[in-house]
Amino acid sequence: MNDSQYHQMTDDLLLSIEEMLDECEVDIDYESAGSILTMTFENGTKIIINKQPPLHQLWVATKFNGHHFNFQDELWIDERTGVEFWSFLDEAATKQAGQNVSLRK
């Protein structure tokens, strides 16, 4: 993928997350600033998703640890665990919210 494709894909992904958070039944605030999306939970914990253009990666920091996602076979995959991005995000948000969070229907 070239730089332009990377930026389009990651910008679309961040916008999709914002739209899903607007529809989410769990109250999760968010703030978007450039290439960073910060999700804030009622208990004050955060998940921060940011673009890493030089590496063509998405980085996600949770209360518990950090993850780097690479685009492989049409999916964003955690380079350490092999978990797909959307599954990871739902699981991480569920842990931090203390209740079931399902962003992708």
Automatic annotation (TrEMBL):
<dbReference type="InterPro" id="IPR036524">
    <property type="entry name" value="Frataxin/CyaY_sf"/>
</dbReference>
<dbReference type="InterPro" id="IPR002908">
    <property type="entry name" value="Frataxin/CyaY"/>
</dbReference>
<comment type="function">
    <text>Involved in iron-sulfur (Fe-S) cluster assembly. May act as a regulator of Fe-S biogenesis.</text>
</comment>
<keyword id="KW-0479">Metal-binding</keyword>
<comment type="similarity">
    <text>Belongs to the frataxin family.</text>
</comment>
<dbReference type="Pfam" id="PF01491">
    <property type="entry name" value="Frataxin_Cyay"/>
</dbReference>
<dbReference type="InterPro" id="IPR047584">
    <property type="entry name" value="CyaY"/>
</dbReference>
<protein>
    <recommendedName>
        <fullName>Iron-sulfur cluster assembly protein CyaY</fullName>
    </recommendedName>
</protein>
<dbReference type="InterPro" id="IPR020895">
    <property type="entry name" value="Frataxin_CS"/>
</dbReference>
<keyword id="KW-0408">Iron</keyword>
